[in-house]
């Protein structure tokens, strides 16, 4: 058996999501049935060398630390020849600038969601990646779960619930404004839409945009409403709801996201069809169960369980490793065209509701 391809990662920023990502990277790939690719962290950048070293000591096993270099500068990490791919884990308002600098330095990049603040920034990153001939992807980790792939097959190929009629998506998590001030500040691109609404839009796209009859066309109707936070002068959104109508497959989708309350555990995504319904219970960013209710002589319920040997971030990392190994510059499952479309949908929602961020957050660099 050939040795696995090992992708060497540079980690930019050392917050909670970076910690989860690295802990998944250093797990044994065989625990999830993967033998063709592996991962190694070779560099970590933070605001100081001490902070980067602390992150290394706390997240990477002792026997893997010898070849990990701590940096106090993102730019220095981008120059490290040992790095095969840079993972951007800064707050949302910094994704675009950090990814742009990494790409211009010639790095492959996996950038946390939301990819950028607007579609114009997303298009710019895609353009620079093409010019530099490097790999680029938004880290929407849920998209790469085996459960999600099964969900789409059941829905779109096997047509388990018949013709899809309606989709309900609710991705809401109570956010304590005192403990998570970043999400209540426009200067850091806060609010429910860009932080939590990525998942609302994800399941909308998986069910409607990817429907075979839709042929990856945009929705025919988009109607958005937003409730602003009264807690700060920034007036970021605490709750946002969106109705999309997809005429080709004849589907209406109702999506909502909120920082004011949690989604009921029993149902985050409900897809109703002519033969029954499919439900994804909590949590839709890390789903572990598909419930299928089929109509007939009484309601026939089937439950499909999927264990996750870790957080689940390793599946997107595995996809990136295979893409870079095979010389690809974007991922087939989540290409840049779809990433840009997702940001265009966000832009339309913000346009209809008047949600704006400061100019220095929204701008595109020359």
From TrEMBL:
Keyword presence, DNA-binding: no
InterPro entries, sorted: Gfo/Idh/MocA-like_OxRdtase_N, Gfo/Idh/MocA_domain, NAD(P)-bd_dom_sf
Keyword NAD: no
EC number: 1.1.1.179
Domain of life: Eukaryota
Domain Gfo/Idh/MocA-like oxidoreductase N-terminal per the UniProt entry, residue ranges: 7-137
Catalysis performed (reactions): D-xylose + NADP(+) = D-xylono-1,5-lactone + NADPH + H(+)
Pfam family, one: GFO_IDH_MocA
Keywords: Oxidoreductase
PANTHER family: OXIDOREDUCTASES, TRANS-1,2-DIHYDROBENZENE-1,2-DIOL DEHYDROGENASE
Family (UniProt): Belongs to the Gfo/Idh/MocA family.
Protein name, per record: D-xylose 1-dehydrogenase (NADP(+), D-xylono-1,5-lactone-forming)
């Amino acid at each position: 058996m050939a040795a696995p391809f090992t992708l060497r990662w540079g980690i930019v920023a050392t917050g909670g999501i970076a910690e989860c990502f690295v802990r998944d990277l250093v797990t044994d790939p065989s625990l999830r049935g993967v033998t063709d690719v592996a991962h190694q962290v070779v560099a970590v950048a933070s605001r100081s060398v001490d902070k980067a070293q602390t992150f290394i000591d706390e997240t990477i096993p002792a026997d893997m630390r010898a070849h990990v270099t701590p940096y106090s500068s993102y730019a220095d990490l981008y120059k490290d020849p040992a790095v095969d791919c840079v993972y951007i884990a800064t707050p949302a308002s910094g994704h675009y600038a950090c990814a742009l600098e990494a790409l211009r330095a010639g790095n492959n990049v996996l950038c946390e969601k939301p990819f950028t603040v607007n579609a114009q920034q997303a298009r710019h990153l895609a353009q620079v990646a093409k010019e530099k001939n490097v790999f680029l992807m938004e880290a929407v980790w849920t998209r790469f779960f085996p459960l999600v792939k099964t969900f789409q097959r059941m829905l779109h190929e096997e047509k388990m619930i018949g013709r899809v009629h309606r989709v309900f998506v609710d991705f809401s998590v109570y956010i304590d404004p005192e403990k998570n001030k970043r999400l209540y500040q426009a200067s850091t691109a806060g609010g429910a839409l860009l932080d939590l609404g990525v998942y609302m839009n994800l399941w909308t796209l998986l069910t409607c945009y990817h429907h075979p009859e839709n042929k990856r066309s945009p929705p025919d109707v988009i109607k958005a409403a937003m409730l602003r936070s009264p807690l700060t002068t920034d007036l970021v959104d605490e709750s946002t709801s969106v109705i999309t109508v997809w005429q080709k497959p004849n589907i209406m989708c109702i999506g909502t996201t909120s920082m004011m309350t949690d989604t009921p555990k029993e149902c985050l995504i409900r897809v109703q069809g002519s033969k029954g319904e499919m439900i994804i219970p909590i949590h839709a960013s890390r789903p572990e169960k598909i419930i299928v209710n089929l109509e007939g002589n009484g309601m026939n319920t089937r439950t499909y369980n999927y264990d996750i040997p870790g957080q689940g971030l390793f599946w997107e990392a595995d996809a990136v490793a295979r893409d870079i190994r095979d010389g690809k510059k974007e991922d087939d499952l989540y290409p840049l065209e779809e990433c840009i479309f997702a940001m265009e949908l966000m832009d339309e929602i913000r346009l209809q509701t008047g949600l704006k961020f400061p100019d220095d957050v929204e701008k595109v660099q020359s």
